[in-house]
Amino acid sequence: MSTIARKLAELPAFVGLSEDTLRGSLRFWSLVTLPPDAPLFTRGEPSTGLAIVLSGRLRAVGDRAELGELGPGELVGEVTAFLDGARSSATVTALEETTLLSLRSSGLLALRRQRSPLYDALLGQALTTLCARVRAVNDMVLSQGVVADPDLSLPPAEPAAAEPPPLLDLLRRLPGQAELPERLLHELTTAFTVQSMRAGQRLVLEGDAADCAFVVAEGQVRATRALPGGGNITLARLGPGDPFGVNALVDRSPRSATCLAESDGWLYRVSAAAPARLSADGSLAWRETLLATLATQLRLANHLLDAPGADADFRAEARASGALLGLPLSGGVANPVVPAALRDPLRPPREGAPVVE
After folding, report:
1. How deeply is 271 buried, as exposed, middle or buried, from its count of CB atoms within 10 A (0-12, 13-18, 19+)?
2. Which residues pair with 235 in a beta bridge?
């Protein structure tokens, strides 16, 4: 077994993958060594791929705050590598001599087209990593001494419509869904159930056990966190087509925020178990949607960290991040090649862009 294949086989994320699967991916990987202070990614630059730390340490820095360090076995670049049009949200540099396995975006797309189990493993690791980073950055926001929101009374509630808007139209607005074939959108609707909400209702409570997520169908929802000294801060305001509670579909951790209905309306609910009943294509599309959603949540959290007290709008941040372009899924398992006429979500970088090799 080659050096790269052996190192891949040693990583916890790839335990159980066959030697043939690992060997089949070798042409897409590069072994990279960075000297101290050398950059891996630069904030604001287009994505070139992702990397896995084998040894050494990396530091990630946002606009105004240090976001943390990364060590052996950790994934870096997962926020942008899976998303078309996204740019690095942090500058990542080596704290010491650091060795990494690098996977170019074009290689990631090739693995996806092949329906490689390695792509599924990378996607699963990216989802887990993103969940942890969203929670960590939100915790950092609380530690900055931010001022609690004033106690604002809710506006007079207007009665909700007798029926919720069609789910299909709302799914098209989710990160990663806009370019999905109709058959897959229709399949995804089977995973959801509808429920009403009333102004002032606490839809999820920070610290509670979590086993489902929601999409706002009609009305407004505010996501808040409790401050250590009392009071709350707003993490995001959500409207029709916006999801919340998606971490529960990945890591089943306790709720990290309280979500309050600011008006009467409707929600679509999806349990953590429901996506398991989808087809292979449907399951892949849904997991990629979760990744695009979590990437937007991380950018939103970074925005709050860099600008405490700023307006927190999920939809605006999603548009700015490129996450809404998502990962179009085209063709069935027998023909999983994305037509050249469609946008390649993981197209190779433009000429002259920085490359990790």
Report:
1. middle
2. none
φ, ψ for residue 224, nearest 5 deg: -130, 160
Q: How buried is residue 265: exposed, middle or buried, by Cβ count under 10 Å (0-12/13-18/19+)?
A: buried
Residue 75 bridge partners (DSSP)? 52
232-238 and 221-226 beta bridge pairing: antiparallel
Q: Which is nearest to 195 in space by CA: 173, 177, 174, 213?
A: 213
Residue reference for tokens 């806009």: 178
Tell me if 334 sits within 8 A of 115, measured CB to CB: no
Question: CB count, 10 Å around CB of 137?
Answer: 23
Dump pLDDT digits (tens) for 216-266. Answer: 999 999 998 888 877 888 888 899 989 999 988 898 888 989 999 999 999
How confident is the model over 21-78, as pLDDT tens digits? Answer: 998 899 899 999 999 999 999 988 887 889 999 999 999 987 767 878 999 989 898 8
| Tokens 């009609």, residue located | 218
> Apex CA 77: angle with CA 174 and CA 276, to 5°?
45
Strand 258-261 and strand 202-204: the pairing is: antiparallel
Q: Where residue 94 falls among pLDDT bands split at 50, 70, 90?
A: very high
Mean pLDDT within 143-152: 70
Residue 355 is which amino acid?
V
Q: In whole angstroms, how far apart are CA 114 and each of 49, 92, 110, 320, 332?
A: 18, 30, 6, 30, 11
Q: Which distant-in-sequence residues (6+ apart) come within 8 Å of 282 by Cβ?
A: 184, 187, 188, 275
Q: What is the DSSP string of 317-353?
A: HHHHHTGGG-----S-TTS-PPPTTS--TTPPPPTT-
Q: Which of 260, 289, 281 is nearest to 333 (CA)?
A: 281
